[in-house]
Amino acid sequence: MAAICAGALAVAGCSVGTGAGDSGRLNVVTTTEILADLVQQVGGDRVSASSLVPAGGDPHSYEPTPADAKRVAKADVTFTNHLLLEPQSLIKTIDANADKDAPNVSLAEAAESYGAHVIPLVENMGLDVLWLGLRVRGTGKARGATRTSSVRLAATKLDGPGKLVAYLTESLGRPDRYFDSTDGLGPGDSTTLPPAAHTHLNWAFTKPGVYHLTLTGSLDNGGGKPLQPLGSGTFTFAVGVEPHSVKPADGGTATVLGEGHTDLTVDLDTGQVYAYSDAKKVGATQSQVPASKLVIDVPNKALVAVPDDPRFAFLGKPGSRIHQLPQAVLGKHVHGEIDPHLWQDVANAKAYVQLIRDTLISKDPDGKQTYTDNTAAYLNQLTDLDDYVRTTLATIPPDRRQLVTTHDAFGYLASAYGMTVAGFVVPNPAQEPSVEQVRKLSDTIRNLKVAAVFTEPNLARRASVLVQVAHDQGVQVCSLYGDAFDDHARTYVEMMRHNADELKRCLGETR
User: Fold this and answer.
1) What is the pTM of this model?
2) CA distances to 67, 117, 421, 479, 498 from 417, in Å
3) Rounded to whole angstroms, how far apart are CA atoms 338 and 421?
4) Residue 169 in 3-state DSSP?
5) Which DSSP helix (H) or strand (E) runs through 373?
6) Which residues cross the membrane (predicted)?
7) Half-sphere exposure (CA, 13 Å, Cβ side) for 267?
8) Which CATH class is domain 386-507?
9) Are the beta carbons of 137 and 331 closer than 8 angstroms?
């Protein structure tokens, strides 16, 4: 560790603080190691910065502990990334325990005023059936909603020839049922999302036919206040039957959706429940379709076998066939409409650093000169880093700038430095990959003439099928840092230099 610290930037010291609140130093708690490093670069010897998410942890899924709440309560300043990068449980822990006099800053949301550039989160998984999730839209400010509020989506009625189970497959293959009609619908057939959030789900139907599912929304602002009722809507599913012959809930002309990305959505501002979809797939300029006018196509090519795993017994007997729309991305993956991984564009990291500087000065005015000087020196290093990443990636031939990764963390890198992100389905690790799953990945890599695929050190368990297919295709497997450090990269500068060098090494040379 001493060797690692010696290699860190001299202006800041080492970014692996324990959060012990060193005497005489400003105690700063962040959610991620990357943010802790940026804070330490600005704060230098006046600051002790540490991360709640441990080394190599996944900030999307980290669950806080009572010890984390105590650390937050002792912090002089807290920084989150937010834009739904972190799980709401972690945000609630921070907001509930932070001292009222301690600045509590969401960097991704506040950095735009410092020149940060945000982009939509574009998820293109290349599915050949509809990708169906759940979403909350709007801020709900008129209803008193904050970033710690929750929106409850409940399945309150189902009509159909069989049973419906909407469930999430977590990163280690464990299913988490949200709506399950196999034992009748009740109060437990619900899930919650933060405002402006989206999540992925599997939608399984035990028999072909026409199903009508009613979803009802309500808002929970916490503090023991009663739930505020929102709207409800009834969605129609055509399972294994011709969708254009099916009438929607209102009996009129249907809008049929059978491909692309659609979310069953509750709107916090209007209270309405509708389908929010890729407008190009709707066939018009609209992106919102009222539930009563929609028919969701679940075709026969969505037939899958129930895995021989007791955890999935709720779907039926092992080997029996069900219709299932897949969740597309493995694991619990709640996020918003804006990509939260701003730091993959170095220009955005520079905006973070300036916001961090001004926040530290507001809490510790006596350190203004130190924070200003450290920031100026570090911004110069980030300018050099930005130039290095740009010039390095510019050497990659344009037709080889395809990114196939395990995680949608590289949209800003692609946007800023001329790369293209290609998506795919990550299968359930509880099952052996099917012939069809392997074929889809193989076709993606072959058709795009992908020179290499990229895994993340902290997400290696999600990459087994990608690695298998890459090996079968004779494609190199390389490594990029997305959300976390490891022992080989302990600072933001080291991380981004590695990413540039690795992309050049793996994509830049003609085979």
Assistant:
1) 0.74
2) 40, 14, 12, 18, 15
3) 16
4) strand
5) helix 368-394
6) none
7) 13
8) alpha beta
9) no
What does the block give as tokens for 275? 């389908």
User: To 10 degrees, the CA torsion angle through 490, 419, 262, 240?
Assistant: -110
Q: Which fold has domain 131-325?
A: Immunoglobulin-like (2.60.40)
Q: Indicate where the chain has its CATH 2.60.40 domain(s).
A: 131-325
Q: Report helix, strand or coil for 122.
A: coil
Identify the bridge partners of residue 233 per DSSP, sorted by sequence position.
215
CA distance 118 to 111: 9
Q: Which CATH class is domain 2-118+342-383?
A: alpha beta
Tens of pLDDT, residue by residue over 304-349, are: 999 888 999 999 999 999 999 988 665 555 656 788 999 999 999 9
Q: What is the pLDDT of residues 116-132, one digit of tens each?
A: 999 877 665 556 788 89
Specify the 3-state DSSP secondary structure of 277: strand
Which residue has tokens 């900030």?
A: 59
Question: Cα–Cα distance between 251 and 292 in angstroms, integer?
Answer: 8
Nearest of 339, 466, 500, 461 to residue 58 by alpha carbon: 461
Numbered ranges of CATH 3.40.50.1980 in the chain: 2-118+342-383, 386-507
Q: Residue 83 carries which side chain, given as an amino acid letter?
A: L
State how far the Cα of 202 lies from the Cα of 408, in Å rounded to an integer: 19
How far is it, in rounded angstroms, from Cα 114 to Cα 224? 37
d(C-alpha 24, C-alpha 70), whole Å: 19
